[in-house]
């Protein structure tokens, strides 16, 4: 005799109208609410204790680009040889340069540039926390991220900028869950203009957008127009604001993104650290194994894994089209967290920082579902991977073993996929009981 399925947890679906209003209300008033003092205290401590250390190979580039943009103008920054970043971060660098007022001040206070990225860490934490049920729970949820070494290490210690595209991608998903198709599309365009890696989120976002467009077809041209206008505005200074149009350079940066560092791994402790002999960071991914290059094997494994983790969301999307219903927020967030995990785990050429976007979606999934295990596991693995390269915290070498960290990421993928399919099975069982 089969065991009856447990009743569905309706808290995990997209909140009803009153809860959506509550989330918006909390976000609008949080700087002036009862927790404002705690947020200001946190901000003051971050500014006072802001590490001067950074990964100098990256921040030296930031300074060079910021100083050039300040001297020659934002529209001419792509005239600088070696500029290989998409346009959005150059706005941050240009603003930083003008706030500092001189090349010398930029160099002296280069660690303050991290605060420009921290804005997006804070925004992402607040958006994710807004999915909790009450103001108090939202406050504690936001602190869980804002006090997390794993969440802040990439920005405050490393000095990298992955939080920018992560914040915009998360905003795109958050808005899509609330039926805001046009604004969601705008945020995704901004994410792409921050880092091309955001492209891996397009398939699950399409699954969120499609039911919205089918339900109200007039939304589609509005969203397309808003996205196109956003793209034009972002590119405009680099097309008409410089000595010439630098659009060809921007297009070339994106066309050459794959193959820029042709190694099996760039210190992302992943599948290749579990299967390769020697150090994958020194092994070219153009070598052949069973008639395919390692690069193509990585792409194939990623494609197969993507089918596995996105299939439940696809089925859910098709059902939403045939029978209109709100999206399952927990399923959406878990699916979106698994996408960057499998992207970094199987593909070659992966940096240790590329896991970053998974953390925010894992946190949001935890806040919605009450399941925190994956967030803890992902946070530990990500922090250890960053620390193994940066060495800022001085953790014991035994904890920084590439094989151990890779196994933790692999375990997170397996457990997350299992939770995804159990959730889908629970939905089917619940639907069968209702039909009876």
Provide a quick synopsis of the model:
By secondary structure, the chain is mostly helical. The protein is 67% helix and 1% strand.
Protein described:
This protein folds into two domains: 13-257, no CATH class; 258-436, no CATH class. By secondary structure, it is mostly helical. The model is unreliable at 1-19 (pLDDT under 50). The relative contact order is 0.11. β1 (288-289) and β2 (292-293) form a beta hairpin. α11 (202-215) packs parallel to α15 (294-322). Helices cover 67% and strands 1% of the residues. It is built from 19 helices and two strands. A two-stranded antiparallel ribbon has the order 1-2.
Distance between the termini: 17 Å
State Rg: 22 Å
Structural class: mainly alpha
Number of helices: 19
Strand order of the largest sheet: 1-2
Q: Give a short account of the largest sheet.
A: 2 strands, antiparallel
Principal-axis shape: globular
Question: What is the mean pLDDT?
Answer: 90
Number of strands: 2
Write the layout of secondary structure elements.
Layout lengths: L16 H13 L6 H13 L7 H17 L15 H13 L2 H6 L5 H16 L5 H12 L2 H10 L3 H16 L3 H14 L7 H14 L3 H22 L6 H9 L15 H5 L12 E2 L2 E2 H29 L6 H18 L9 H14 L3 H18 L11 H34 L1
Antiparallel strand pairs: 1-2
Provide tags for this entry:
single chain; mainly alpha; 19 helices; 2 strands; 67% helix; globular
